[in-house]
Write a structure and sequence with these properties.
This protein has 728 residues and is of the alpha/beta class. It folds into 3 domains: 104-339, polyphosphate kinase like, CATH 3.30.1840.10; 350-536, Endonuclease, Chain A, CATH 3.30.870; 540-726, Endonuclease, Chain A (2-Layer Sandwich), CATH 3.30.870.10. It is built from 20 helices and 28 strands. α16 (545-561) runs parallel beside α17 (578-589). It starts with a helix and ends with a helix.
Amino acid sequence: MNDSSIVDTGLGDAEDDDFDALVEAPEADLPHHRYTDRELSWLAFNQRVLELAEDENVPLLERANFLAIFASNLDEFFMVRVAGLKRRILTGLAVPTNVGTAPQKVLDEINAEAHALQMRHAHVWNDQVRPSLAAEGISMLEWSELGDGERADLYEFFQQQVFPVLMPLAVDPAHPFPYISGLSLNLAVRIRHARTGRQEFARIKVPPMLPRLVRVPPREASPEVARYIPLESLIAEHLDDLFPGMEILEHHAFRLTRNEDMVIEEDESENLIQALEQELLRRRFGPPIRLEITEDMDDVTLGLLLDELDISDQEVSRLPGPLDLRALFGLGGVDRPDLKYAKHVPVTALELQPADSDSKHAKADVFAAIRQGDVLVHHPYESFATSVQAFLEQAARDPQVLAIKQTLYRTSGDSPVVQALIDAAENGKQVLALVEVKARFDEANNIEWARILEKAGVHVVYGLVGLKTHCKIASVVREENGHLRHYTHVGTGNYNPKTSRVYEDMGLFTCDPVVGRDVTRLFNELSGYAIEKKFSRLLTAPLHLRKGLLKHIARERKNALAGKPAHVRIKVNSMVDEEIIDALYRASMAGVKVDVSVRGICSIRVDLPGVSDNIRVRSVLGRYLEHSRIFAFENGGSPKAFIGSADMMHRNLDRRVEALVELTRPEHIDEVVSFFDLAMDETSSTWHLGPDGAWERRHLDADGRPLVDVQDRTMSLIQRRRRARKTR
């Protein structure tokens, strides 16, 4: 298959009748500066995460967890987004951003804003969360705060568990400056030779395979639950053991971020796996883009690092210690349920309840349930294990199932989903797994378990050249009474049991032959050479998903001008695509109500008089990561709704295979609209997008009482709906 044949595949919908007439509108009616910068918008998203860590109404250990999430998010932002921007500037490929700002100016603004957020982040930990944890008996200690007995115990731990794996590397004429891996935590040590008086430099890498937070042995009758000392502090206190006979002059922590944005030059004549593995090796040696140092680092040490790492002063972040607060993920195991969110126990979707609900070991017949009608599930409020996982496990052991086809973007190698595919292949079924090995930062894992699947007899394919396969689809073909029936799942999230506990997602199960035919044709495109232009209940990218959404938005605009009910509701992770945003502006100008719920980046401006007056943008963040994508249209009183995998970004609409499925049961449409509207309600705790791209958190009422938590209320609504159906 060559590139031109890929473009011709269509991957679109069948309704193109009056598209041009619907969407045609002059661009001149829209102001030039009508978008906010996506990179600065992303930093605003991470600020919202930080605001959760600052909120005293959030349970204390959850606040620490949000600090760790903030740190992890920012690392990826620099590794990918900032690295990509710098590369484009250096190669001369950068063009002004969609807000008309020169790329170098955007980079300067990013660096300033990111550093301000990092300082705020450090302040929240050192001055708010850390003291509050200590008051609850969970302490992060310095060496000076330990007693003699505790120091002796930790020294023994250091000698037995830490010292043997440390590798101090000297820098001198015989020892070149060592390679510093990306995101590694290091100690820069300056020492003086006792005999010659000569000063030397050494680097010690803090071993990443050891726990970053070292548990301090408990004291007798201590009321404290958990006491820790950072691993780098333990190492720093025993540098004499590493450099005997030397005088320790200075020691400081530092951390380097490298460019880890991968660019795969795909060629159908090459082996994709080999090309990817080569690129993974190259990623380890990407150029430095950020140097984090502790605020007490002396100028001599810093100067040496700048020279050896070939990094500029502008790329240095001088921060209060400790560096790399991803370490706070390690507090998740502390047994203090009173300092965590109250548990939400996922329920089984009512349609998937076993017939014998009184038996502990009873299992539902998932296929029988789907035959009764489409089933919509909402994770993590409704169980992944008793829906998606049960669907695939039943298919693997059912003798009437002939074939299983599934896309896999991110999952774990020990996943029961992967095991179900292996079991199915070993049971003699035809099994196809479309594995996206280019899923960012999961490439190595995906390659490993793709090979495991192949060894088990699963047909593993890697999609289309030049496109990532991001759609979440699974198809089961079953023989029933001499005929073949297609059971299909189309979802918004990855087939990953682990993340399904914390990612908010939706999925539709159906045996509608129309959807079955659509998905079969899509799989044929992805695994073979079929060229299919027509889909009925799916909207698919890269060619026609944007086109289909633009048509629906334009129809709302047309209805509003005709005095009919008109409302557009969109819930996504990111809203960046200019064509979609312009269509929403034009809809707003025609009087259409436009509600957008976005978790992360949003380039819409709501402060454009006469343009965005009817647009509301909200953001929901909380214990779960909002991940579902929902598109609902009033359609003149006959609502339409879609769920699926696509965000409103160029990469999703132009360079990925994505799929949205239309919901047809009225109760399902009502359900997604009600969940969506909850997020837009003025009594709900959300962030409101305001002028100049600023987000305002509204989580307290006029009397200072907390507003409705969207995710808690969603769980309550699902449980209430389940109870109501049981009593019918």
